[in-house]
């Protein structure tokens, strides 16, 4: 196969591993910076150009689109889809997962467990918003945040309303969530490929930290997940329409609750913790499922 990896940086661990795994399986693979692609959108004749050349003949494309370039990155991916290139994840699924409110609305509609969550634009009744999620302590999250930045634990009603007021003053978008204290500063990341959990790890925040992000000094270890966790993770991936993703789950007293679904999950932590060749499994999945023109963008869904 001829594969494209859409990634801004060929030196990133995940990009390197995907290239390595594809090469090992004797595929041709090229890393393409989506921000350097330019496109023509002529009737029935879409083109993608890159560094002065027309890109064509790719069998599949692996999007590794960072959160900060979602808008342009998904447009480039859509253009590949219009050319009939098989995408590992569809542009539509990536856009859905990047919009926290949209993805939470979809997941709750389909009955996937999640922490009680409220969101508001400029609430004039902060107390009622807090009551919606069961009152303090609550977790307040900036919608634009990643890697745990902009996630605040407000332990009292007073603290919660002053954080909310501050965010309102900044005109920031945020959501307010029930604090799942019993998770003990840990979460479970399930890596899904083709509707199956292929690896899982438990991430534990460092002492005194409720956020488990590895970027915030958390540590990761292999974990056995329960059937309920497996079912929750696979359902979340299915609802968002993602072949490959990382589903982050908190272990709450009422069962597994989904916090986030990541459509470009990092491979380093999960490969190290599980000892599995996740990149290889991704390439195998493409080998089995790729078909020219097999994309929603080309078909009726648009
Ligand atoms: P980001 O997308 O910035 O990583 P998350 O929503 O994943 O933000 O939150 C970061 C971390 O904070 C999570 O990995 C988890 O450990 C902790 N956390 C987030 N929401 C809750 C919650 N409702 N209850 C308990 N812990 C939470």
UniProtKB/TrEMBL annotation:
Residues reported in the UniProt entry to bind Mg(2+) 2: 260, 262
Pfam families registered for this protein in UniProt: RimK, Rimk_N
Annotated keywords: ATP-binding, Ligase, Magnesium, Manganese, Metal-binding, Nucleotide-binding, Protein biosynthesis, Ribonucleoprotein, Ribosomal protein
InterPro entries membership: ATP-grasp, ATP-grasp_RimK-type, ATP_grasp_subdomain_1, RimK, Rimk_N, Rp_bS6_RimK/Lys_biosynth_LsyX
GO CC entries: ribosome
tRNA-binding as UniProt keyword: no
One GO MF term: ligase activity
Positions of Mg(2+) 1 binding: 248, 260
Cofactor comment: Binds 2 magnesium or manganese ions per subunit.
Cofactor: Mn(2+); Mg(2+)
Binding-site positions, Mn(2+) 1: 248, 260
Binding annotation for Mn(2+) 2: 260, 262
EC number(s) recorded for this UniProt protein: 6.3.2.-
Location of the ATP-grasp domain: 104-287
Highest taxon listed in the record's lineage: Bacteria
Residues involved in ATP binding: 141, 178-179, 187, 211-213
Entries under PROSITE patterns matching the protein: ATP_GRASP
Keyword Transcription regulation: no
PANTHER family: RIBOSOMAL PROTEIN BS6--L-GLUTAMATE LIGASE, RIBOSOMAL PROTEIN S6 MODIFICATION PROTEIN
Family statement drawn from the similarity comment of this UniProt entry: Belongs to the RimK family.
Protein's name according to its UniProt entry: Probable alpha-L-glutamate ligase
Biological source species: Halorhodospira neutriphila
């Amino acid at each position: 196969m001829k594969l494209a990896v859409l990634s801004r940086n060929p030196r990133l661990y995940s990009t390197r591993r995907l290239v390595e795994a594809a090469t090992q399986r004797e595929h041709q693979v090229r890393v393409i910076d989506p921000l350097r692609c330019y496109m023509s959108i002529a009737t029935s004749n879409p083109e993608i150009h890159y560094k002065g050349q027309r890109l064509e003949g790719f069998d599949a494309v692996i999007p590794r689109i960072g959160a900060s370039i979602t808008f342009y990155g998904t447009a480039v991916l859509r253009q590949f889809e219009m050319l009939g290139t098989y995408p590992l994840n569809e542009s539509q699924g990536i856009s859905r997962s990047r919009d926290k409110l949209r993805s939470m609305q979809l997941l709750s509609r389909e009955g996937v467990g999640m922490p009680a969550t409220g969101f508001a634009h400029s609430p004039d009744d902060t107390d009622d918003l807090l009551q919606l999620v069961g009152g303090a302590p609550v977790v307040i999250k900036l919608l634009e945040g990643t890697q745990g930045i902009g996630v605040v634990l407000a332990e009292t009603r007073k603290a919660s309303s002053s954080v909310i007021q501050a965010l309102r003053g900044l005109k920031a978008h945020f959501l307010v969530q029930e604090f799942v204290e019993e998770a003990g500063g840990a979460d479970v990341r399930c890596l899904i490929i083709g509707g199956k959990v292929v690896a899982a790890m438990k991430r534990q925040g460092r002492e005194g930290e409720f956020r488990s992000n590895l970027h915030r000094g958390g540590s990761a270890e292999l974990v056995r997940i329960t059937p309920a966790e497996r079912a929750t993770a696979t359902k979340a991936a299915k609802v968002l329409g993602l072949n490959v993703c990382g589903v982050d789950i908190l272990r709450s007293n009422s069962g597994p609750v989904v916090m986030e679904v990541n459509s470009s999950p990092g491979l380093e932590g999960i490969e190290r913790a599980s000892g599995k060749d996740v990149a290889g499994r991704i390439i195998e999945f493409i080998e089995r499922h790729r078909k020219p023109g097999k994309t929603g963008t080309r078909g009726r869904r648009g």
